[in-house]
Amino acid sequence: MSAADATAVRAVTRTRGRFRVALSVGVALIAAWTVVAALWPALAPYDPEAQDPLARFLAPGGAHLLGTDQFGRDTFSRMLAGARPVLQVAPPATVLGVLLGTAIGLAAGTLGGLVDEIIMRVLDAVAIFPAVIATVLFVALAGRSVTVMVLVIAGAFTPIVARSVRAATLVEREKAYVEAVRLRGGSTVREILPNIGPTVLVEATSRFGDAIFAAATLSFLGLGQPPGSPDWGASVSDNRLWLTVAPWTVLAPALAIASLVVGIALTADALRGRREHA
Amino acid sequence: MTTLNPYLNSVNMDDPGNAVLTRLPGLSRRVFIGGAALTALLAACGTGTTAQTTPTTEPAKTPKRGGVLKAGSPPPPTKVDPVTMYDGTAIAIVQLVADYLIWLDKDFTLEPRLAEKWETTDGGTTWTFTIRQGVTFSDGTPLDAETVKASFDRLLDPDSKSAALSAFDGVLKAGGVAAPDTHTVTFTLERAFSDFPYLVSAGNYNALILKKDYTGGGDIIGTGPFTLTTYDVSTGAVFTRNPTYWQEGKPYLDGVEIKFYADDQADLLALQSGEIDAQILSRPQLVGPLKGAGDIVVDQVPGTGLTAFTLRTDQPPFDRKENRQAVAYALDRPGVNTTIYDGVGALGNDHLFAALFPAAPTDIPQRAKDPAKVAELLGGQKLSFDLTFDPPSKDLALTLQNQLKQAGIEVQLDQRTSADFYGGDQEKDTPWLFTAANLVGWAGRAVPSQFIIPMVRSDGVWNGSKYANPALDEAAQAYDAATTEEDRRAQAAIIATALHEDVPVIISVWAGTVRAYNGTKFAGVQAHPASYVDFSEVTAL
Amino acid sequence: MKGFLLRRAATVPLTLLGVSLLVFAATELVPGDVARTILGREASQASVTALREQLGLDRPWIQRYADWLGGFLTGDWGESYTLGVPVHDLVLDRLGHSLLLAGVAFALLAPVAVGLGLWAGVRHDRAADRVISVGGLAFGAVPEFVTGVILLVVFAVKLRWFPSGAQAPEGSGPLIVLWHLALPALSLVLLCTGYVARHVRAGTVASVESPYARAAELRGLTRGQVVRRHVLRNSTVPAASALGVQLQFLLGGLVSVELLFTYPGIGALLLQAAVDKDLPVLQAAALVLGLLYMVIVLGADVAYRLLDPRVRLGAVTS
Q1: Any stretches that span the bilayer, and where are they (chain C) (predicted)?
Q2: Domains plus CATH for chain C?
Q3: Contacts of residue A128 in chain C, CB cutoff 8 Å?
């Protein structure tokens, strides 16, 4: 084995090692929050809804690990309890939005011509329809529920994802291998799909973070989670008014959101990296 | 996705959040403000005398002149029109520019402004007001009795669409105002009403005296301490000193700027960063925790604002009186006061007489949390209901839900948008008057009748509990007509006892109000129980 | 290319018409009453009914839509129901502010995000890449009203280096205007950088590892030359697409930043109009934003065709 070969092998090993670390950290973060979402009643030191007028704005430490909020509720317990509403809405909304968007974008990109034109113009109309009206209307007609939240958020994501996927598809479509398949009369979609994987992955990870916000926004409007929900996004928007007085009430849910999104990003990156290097 | 803000809806005068309070950090500042207010009060009282006589007791207190006060407030939801306005910012803007016949002081006493004096000669049916002479509008037009008459005729016109029509309902109608000479205005009422002066005071906030030719949407020209220079629906309003203001020497400021903040937090941070010097509509829950931090001073006054927890007495589950009482006994009222009003409110006792009202009964025991009583009243039955409210009442709803849960009463929260909650037809279906249980904020009123007549009389326009009690109806009428203090108290006792016993509405806390300002730059900014503004005595430091 | 542009331009009015009809119809179904909003809850029901008639709200919605459309097309955008000011001036004034803020944010975002994405892509799977990717996502996961508040508390309240409001006083010079816009623009850049950088990185990685880039390297070009000659060009395709998406967000989705920094932009106006059911304002704001959005998308698509030779060829063949 030459010195150059040895360096190359070491580089590959190092890269693989890094992917392994990233993957374990990512999976661990997701797993941890999933476990918390399922088991928080056993883990939380306090009832996350319980108010105590004599214990408002307590700083972290002591009996309250992460302090208390304007109602005297325990921030740590609320952070744990918030994992459940977040995981009930954001993942299904992201998956649905990305699936729909990918299907539409792929169809538009591969079929091209008039079909592409029509699909994209309809998506434009969806994208420019004011989200406020859409959500208020949807909730007024269908009632307030997790399903409605998932549908509204997925609907808002679909045009964005579709546009990105279509763009990636157009690039792939003109490549030689696709051309070859087309000449053979095979399915071009099956050839293109794996190659637009990175784009779909980027969209999925970015949309996941957005889904948490969007859910928060709906709760904020009184159209999503019930008022007082420990949902992280809702907590951030509820507590921000007291940021200068009790920053922990905003930072705890904000860091929880960030850690979950980062966990998903690490996992997605590592999986893609492993495939590329395989 | 667009992020939306539930607090975007501008602050309605009846937003309960509007009514909360806090205190001054430094003793020295408090004393100084007290002194300044006293001087001002003496100056205001002596219409014939000049203020020069006061410095003998208070040497070297000539107020400094100049400076521009910048105040933050939510943008008005509508065009500013004194006749139809109802939100705190619009009211503040017009109050800087125009005057009432009578101002409402922070302790609810009546202070003569454009009316010098008033009297009734027949037990409260006919009222004669003497109009101040020598007052001119900022454009030079002189004030006379005809102008005052025109201002009230404008409000009383059934086509005016003014909320004042509701306030005058059953008391005064179009045609009841006359101007027999240039300085006298008489009001002929539909029934005797001993508190009538309150209805033509600032307590009826649309009752401003405007020029005869004012029409909705036109320039707002008044006799007030400032004149409106520019107004922009997006950014704010700029005022300059009215050099011909009738209260000589005032205002001390050169001008006032009101900047619009659609977001509570932006308003708060602007105050903390020094971008603005004061807030028009401070919320105790938000400025309370800032007390004493940096330059921020929070003035507070007790008030008569409230959030009515209305229970529909004509349908299950609250057609059963014991259920209503059980809810009332399940509440930890001091806890509500601390959490929602930062401790500046006063405990309520489920009747509509705040301790500030002179006729308030004192012998009804204060209702307090009593789990045993709750269990007894419920008699083993499970109580569960939906509570409907709009975003400004969200925090209160959460606290009530939590407290009732501890007493075994289950509450499902039904939050609506403000447009939805107050939309619909008030005679048929509007949620705030037709849901089984709801939370409705009411700004402070100067007299209890302003609550009792619309809210709990059987024919009240805003009787959301659908409460009907002939004894109370009769006592409410007699209360308004009462001419002696004794008679008043007797009627008040009947009304309060009935409400306390029947609990059509739960009044857990009487909100106080607060106003936060920068104490290193200005003095004399005061809280007002109805969040009104009078900046004519504010001085720059 | 000309045919493409013409075809696309022709669909714009149709799309806008459809959207306006939908907005109008949808607003009808949302609970609430603009007449009640104007008069307040203490006005009598009779007054509210009278105002509804005066505003013509008692007529069937299709008739009101036709009236509004007729007016809109002939340049009469009407008056705001609630604010009583001409819609045309109000909407365009607010739009101008939004364009300025979006422009400043975009001018910061584009070079920073594309630069970081390229760097991460060229050095993919190294430390720099990791930091950029994870950091971008983490910032992208914190709502702009949180980063915004933190920036405000630190730089406006504590240090007092920047003003807390984003609107400069009338007649300020460009530097003062920029100084006022710095904090809101920064909070937006923090939010959007991750998304754009990740798209650029994905495109860069693909082209760095593509056969032609490898071939170029084998021909003796340095990494830097390869990046400049081949990778850069190929990465601009996803960059244009991702930046297009963000530009649309910057123009229409700034409600929370506008509110937090008290900036009179069109996002907050659109929201308020929707909440109040102020249809003339809502329609005008939605259509102006929609038009702008479609122009941006079209621009991105054109850029796309010009930048990518393969798509360019594809367009010719199709």
Answers
A1: 99-122, 134-157, 177-197, 249-275, 281-304
A2: 87-312 (1.10.3720.10)
A3: 15, 19, 286, 289-290, 293-294
